[in-house]
Amino acid sequence: MTVFERHTLPNGLRVLTAPMLQAQSVTCFVMLAAGSRYETRDTRGIAHFAEHMFFKGTERRPSARDIAGEIDAIGGEFNAFTSKEYTGYYVKCASEHRDVALDVLVDMLRRSKFDPDEIEREKGVIVEEMNMYFDTPRDYIGGVYEQLLYGDQPLGWDIIGDRETVRAATRGTFLDYLDRWYRPSRIVVGLGGRLGDEAVERIAELLGDLEDAPHDGRAAPAAANGGAPVKVHTKESDQAHLILGVPSYPLEHPDRYALQLLATVLGGGMSSRLFTEVRERRGLGYYVYGVNHSYTDAGSLYAQAGVDIARIDDAVTTIVAELRRMAEEPVPYDELEKARNFAKGRFVLQLESPHGTVMFGLRREVLEGRAAEPEEVLAGIDAVTADDVQRVAGTLIGDGRLKLAVIGPFDDAERFERLLG
Questions:
Q1: How far apart are the first and last CA of the chain?
Q2: Nearest 10 degrees: CA dihedral of 268, 270, 271, 275?
Q3: 3-state secondary structure the chain
Q4: Count of CB atoms within 10 A of residue 78's CB?
Q5: Cα of 2 vs its chain's centroid, Å
Q6: Burial per residue of 273-302, b for 16 or more beta-carbon CB atoms within 10 angstroms, e otherwise
Q7: Contact present, 39 and 154 (Cβ < 8 Å)
Q8: What digits encode the pLDDT tens for the residues 7-21?
């Protein structure tokens, strides 16, 4: 059964729909191939800052209160997010209010005022968001790890930017950024749920006149950082946070599903190897999990944990041992089947809601140029064998490839380098 329908307007803007007749709601989404990795050194943080400013008032809805009030009046939910490779804006509401949701979204994206006084006020908000991020080790450890992996390039920079570039932003900074990246060929509008009549036609009315422009739409290519294997962020804390992993594969790699099951066996769920060894058997920490995160041209397989400061050495050596065991021993049949069913089950649960379904399709459409049907994903997971998992693990996990980021009251990186072997 086909879940997604794809349409392209004459100006290059794509529309992805996922009709779900059983739903009473609709999710209206605008996603752009524009994220923090498309920034320059002088505009770091502008993609995230722009996301904030779209909610601050338009020509027709002059204030943030006016925008929020219109969504509240239909009982809707709206929000936005910025990642390194894409930015998304959405409204979820009862299907009868679809046109209001679309009108508000498009108004925000096309007619935001970027009032200089609002920009100055919002700088303080962004700086406080930075403070919260830097003061939350469980979140900030991901930034430390990507600095270690990618170094001083866009993929290694924090999405939120830095205080200097945020404070230097002007109305012109935003308009230049939008003029370059917010173009029809980089935009996908997604609708999921009970769509109503003439949904694509309505989007064409709202966005069909948006002019495209030729430009170099590529981000700076990812380059591996050849530096030290360990990065320590010294911070007084009651718990140490760490990420230990290896570079892996980009999104469209042929072994993407084997890599997914490798990560699932390693650290997916409360019966995974990492959870069992680090928390249940050894009592080294409260949370631990393993995951693979891929970009269009890079990726990393890693474990993240919050552990007892006094026993961090044990935690690191335990995780190293579990990573290496993935490469040295085939996964037993029962364990692989459990991981396969876990991955498929979590994927299917995601598709139960209009929001989850359209989010899945949009992310694939924006980053890969095509929205894979769910059956294709499930078939890919089903095709993975134990030999595939061990082969991928053997390729990725080896001496000299392990990378470790740590936040805690430590200042000796060499101490941790010795634990990596």
A1: 50
A2: 80
A3: CCCCEEEECCCCCEEEEEECCCCCEEEEEEEECCCHHHCCHHHCCHHHHHHHHCCCCECCCCCHHHHHHHHHCCCCEEEEEECCCCEEEEEEEEHHHHHHHHHHHHHHHHHECCCHHHHHHHHHHHHHHHHHHHCCHHHHHHHHHHHHHHCCCHHHCCCCCCHHHHHHCCHHHHHHHHHHHCCHHHEEEEEEECCCCCHHHHHHHHHCCCCCCCCCCCCCCCCCCCCCCEEEEECCCCCEEEEEEEECCCCCCCCHHHHHHHHHHHHCCCCCHHHHHHHHHCCCEEEEEEEEEECCCCEEEEEEEEECHHHHHHHHHHHHHHHHHHHHCCCCHHHHHHHHHHHHHHHHHHCCCHHHHHHHHHHHHHHHCCCCCHHHHHHHHHCCCHHHHHHHHHHHCCCCCCEEEEEECCCCHHHHHHHCC
A4: 20
A5: 25
A6: bbbebbbeeeebbeebbbbbbbbbbbbbbb
A7: yes
A8: 999 999 999 999 999
Assign 325 a pLDDT band (cuts: 50, 70, 90).
very high
Instruction: Give the residue carrying structure tokens 């078939």.
Output: 379
342-395 per-position pLDDT tens digit: 999 999 999 999 999 999 999 999 999 999 999 999 999 999 999 999 999 999
Q: What's at 75, amino acid-wise?
A: G
Domain with CATH 3.30.830.10 in the chain: 5-207, 230-419
Residue 122 to residues 67, 162, 371, Cα–Cα distance (Å): 17, 14, 36
Its pTM surpasses 0.85: yes
Tell which residue, 150, 129, 133, 134, has the closest CA to residue 231.
150
Angle at 79 between CA 74 and CA 80, to 5 degrees: 150
- Do residues 410 and 316 lie in contact, with contact meaning Cβ atoms separated by under 8 Å? no
> What is the reported pLDDT for 41?
93
5-207 fold:
Cytochrome Bc1 Complex; Chain A, domain 1 (3.30.830)
pLDDT attached to residue 394? 97
Report d(CA 391, CA 399) in Å as an integer. Answer: 16
Active site positions, annotated: 51
Under CATH, which number does the domain 230-419 receive?
Answer: 3.30.830.10
